[in-house]
Amino acid sequence: MSVAVGIEARSPRQSARRRSASFAIPVLIAVLAVTAIVALTVGAAGIPLSRLPAALGFAGESTAMTARDQLVLWSIRIPRIAAAAMIGGLLAAAGAIMQGLFRNPLADPALVGVSSGGALAAASAIVFTDSRFGEALRFLQTELLPLAAFAGSLATTAILYGISSRSGRTSIAIFLLAGVAITAIANAGIGLLVFIADDRQLRDITFWMLGSMSGVTWTKAAVLAPVLVIGLGACAFIARGLDLLVLGEADAFHGGVDVERLKRIAIVMVSAMTGVAVSISGVIGFVGIVVPHLLRLVIGPAHRLLLPASVLSGAILMIAADTLARTIVAPAEMPIGILTATVGAPVFLFILLRQRALAAL
């Protein structure tokens, strides 16, 4: 009797998920397009919507079109919006993969220390290329910063993989625990750098640690594109394996999944996605945990749909957050991480309380 009641109780929820999943991608694409259009027109230098087609080359010459509009759109806003969309998509997809890999809907890319490793390397670049020991490198700081952050993320991944792998097998539990330890070490290093930094370096470190899209150029946006494309391809390749991994490693293996290869691919993709995103924008929290978790509640846990939906939803969230960051205190700019944390932390607490309530039923 209780089993029957449980099935009946679950059926409406499953039916609602199926209905949501059937139109999730088209709706998210439409919302992404609207969000991007709004972001193009809003800012310290406002551009009326009526001028947008001419500025983008979709209409003939317009007397209302100005050189300023062209410069703002093509040199600042379009690369910035494109980068924000790709960074949001990368972080959200990395979070969805992490949650599937750890079989924990509250897992987050920051748990494994990749973000902290990149942050330590970036903070080191800020301090040591802007000190009396690095006068010759000061002019290269803009270029060195993302390279240093990406190198730090890769080095962290290599260390974690070396610690957690033995005889061709990777222990996810050891990988996670080692990530916590590496994060603590990296945070200690960042604290030391903050202690020895001067006022300007401290301001740069703080702003970078909170995340920003202010330094994005076409070149940096172009770096993100191939990583996102490769990441989407990898997501399609590992989606079925992540679905089966929910049942446990043994069941996934008997279902035809090469579990060790799946782990390696997932770890490499999460590290690359997070490392590239951090190298361009700095550390931005809660995107990788909140977006995929909310999508699991709405459209279900099937990764074939969850991963692309996470990319689109992460892009929407990041564009919206960046638009607010550059408008609410214009002409100054608020670090984007403040906004994502302001929204993400309450949502995260709501998720925890909701899960506790459901577990008590």
Structural key phrases:
1% strand; 361 residues; ABC transporter involved in vitamin B12 uptake, BtuC; disordered N terminus; mainly alpha; two-stranded antiparallel ribbon; 2 strands
Protein model, in words:
- This protein has 361 residues and is mostly helical.
- The chain has one domain: ABC transporter involved in vitamin B12 uptake, BtuC (Orthogonal Bundle), CATH 1.10.3470.
- It has helices at 2-41, 52-55, 67-101, 114-128, 141-164, 172-196, 199-209, 218-245, 249-254, 259-281, 287-299, 303-325, 336-360; strands at residues 165-166, 169-170.
- A two-stranded antiparallel sheet has the order 1-2.
- It is globular, with a radius of gyration of 22 Å.
Strand content: under 5%
* Fraction of residues in helix: over 70%
**Helix count, per DSSP?**
13
Gyration radius, to the nearest Å?
22 Å
CATH topology: ABC transporter involved in vitamin B12 uptake, BtuC
Structural class: mainly alpha
Q: What is the residue-averaged pLDDT?
A: 84
Tally of domains: 1
The tally of beta strands, per DSSP, is 2
Q: How many angstroms does the end-to-end distance come to? A: 17 Å
- Helix/strand order, N-terminal first: HHHHHEEHHHHHHHH
Can you identify the CATH class? Mainly Alpha
- Strand line-up across the major sheet: 1-2
Inertia-based shape:
globular
The CATH superfamily is identified as ABC transporter involved in vitamin B12 uptake, BtuC
Question: Which architecture would the CATH scheme give at its second level?
Answer: Orthogonal Bundle
Segments where pLDDT lies below 50 for 5+ residues?
1-9
Largest sheet: 2 strands, antiparallel
